[in-house]
Amino acid sequence: MDVELGLKIVEQILEKKHLSKVQEILLQQSLAGHSYTEIAKASGYDAGYLKDAGSQLWQSLSHVLGEKVSKNNLVAVLKRNSFRFARTEPDRQFNSQFTSDTNATPPKYNSQLNPTSYSTPNPPVRTGFEQRSIDVSRESFDKPAPMTPDFQNLEPEIDISLFCGRSTELALLEKWILGDNNSISRCRVVAIVGMGGIGKTALSAKLVIQIQDKFDCTIWRSLKSAPSLSELLSDIIPILTQRLDPYLPEKLGDRISLLLSYLRQQRCLLILDSWETILASNDRLGCYREGFEGYGEMIERLGTEIHQSCLILTSREKPKEVIAYSGEKLAVRSLQLTGLKVTEINTIYQTINTFWGSPEEWQQLVDYYSGNPLSLKIVAAVIQDLFDGNISQFLQCWRSEVFILDGIRDLLDSQFNRLSDLETEVMYWLAIEREPVTVIELQDDLLSILSKQQLVNTLNSLCRRCLIDKNDGKFIQSSLIIDYMTEKFTQQIYQEIS
């Protein structure tokens, strides 16, 4: 395709919105058939930055056209849509140059879709694709419609403009999900777990940008509103069938079977965020709330039955099915996220505003909050507002009397309130000990009469909730959690004696 002609069509599609320099480079080089690596070498831009910028440009085009646009199918999509947009161009040459290229008729499209502009150097990543117009013929709801490749239905808008680091985790997840050109090595279920605020959702959003072109369909749903599995499948299956009113069996198990049949026929990337919402509080780790047990059956079947799709779930706790069926060489795997490095937090802070402190002070700050990005962003606001970005002054104030900021306390409360009575007691005693302890040492401390089996199961549960660390057979809490649990314990004692 002629590059200048392609640029004209894109301008028409985006209603003549101004294209940034990066967008023009991406379009010109993509139309010429060059890869991101080749574009990076020629332009001087980082290849990762170009991929992110390209992803958002393709999303903008997708919103308008009602179908997924990617670097790989850009030329084909522009050809298919040339007649629709060429009619608005008075230049006859513009309209005629496609006559010999294709005899395609204009596709159906949803006129309600609005373009999304991309003009800032580091814009929030938008993952809110609208679903395109689809045929609602009632001829055969029990059979999937012929698949149109490369469609998406992504629900949230995740801002990853402050995303930093995680290159090792991204590479590992990509290897797990895409495999080594060998479908046998591909994961069917991947769980990303970690404490609240550690960056599970942001990592997933970044990962989707990198690998979504390898899938026919990408669907993202948040479970924060705790939809029943029946409701979730009633939402997802019509997207997979590309019918607004497909046949849906009454029995939940049959709906899961129907979901699997579609996941076998096409390669779908399904992301379910905030899985812990449907897990029970004050109970054994990984157990489901009443009425949500079907989610466990779905994970088990997606992990053990053959299909070509992948489910990514994010959670503060590992579902019991993930624990049971995961392994380094199995189709179900889990990744536990740890905190970011000092250099990565420093980069995030300097993006927010100007902060300064000695290398030792930066290290102390990041270590205390275990590199948790959300906790450290909450702290950044206080350092900037009260100490004008001076980390040294903040630490001097903090050393005189250790305190926990409200936003961080709320984050820890949301996890502490999910613990069972035994888990809570063990957490209190670990905070009292302050130093690493063995199972036997801890059993001697506990007031409750616990068997070793109960204690081992409780410690195992706390590890999988990411609330304690294990090293050389000994268990310990992070400095922040020690201070938090000490505060909670003091409050409890005060309430009991008052």
Instruction: Please name the CATH architecture of the largest domain.
Output: 3-Layer(aba) Sandwich
Order of helices and strands: HHHHHHEHEHEHHEHEHEHHHHHHHHEEH
What is the CATH third-level topology name of the largest domain?
Answer: Rossmann fold
Average pLDDT, all residues: 79
- Roughly what percent helix? 40-55%
Helix tally? 21
Into which percentage range does the β-strand content fall?
Answer: 5-15%
Tally of distinct domains: 4
- How far do the termini sit from each other? 80 Å
Total number of strands:
8
Shape summary: globular
Region (Disordered): 94-128
Biased composition (Polar residues): 94-120
GO biological process, one term: defense response
GO molecular function, one term: ADP binding
Describe this structure in words.
By secondary structure, this protein is of the alpha/beta class. It has four domains: 1-106, no CATH class; 144-338, P-loop containing nucleotide triphosphate hydrolases (Rossmann fold, 3-Layer(aba) Sandwich), CATH 3.40.50.300; 342-410; 419-497, Arc Repressor Mutant, subunit A (Orthogonal Bundle). Helices cover 49% and strands 8% of the residues. The chain is built from 21 helices and eight strands. The strands form two sheets. It has a six-stranded parallel β-sheet with strand order 1-3-4-5-2-6, sandwiched between helices. β4, α11 and β5 (310-315) form a beta-alpha-beta unit. α10 (252-265) runs parallel beside α11 (294-304). The protein is globular, with a radius of gyration of 26 Å. Residues 86-151 have low confidence and may be disordered. InterPro entries: Disease_R_plants (IPR044974), HTH_VMAP-M9 (IPR058651), NB-ARC (IPR002182), P-loop_NTPase (IPR027417). Residues 1-80 form the vWA-MoxR associated protein N-terminal HTH domain. It comes from Scytonema millei VB511283.
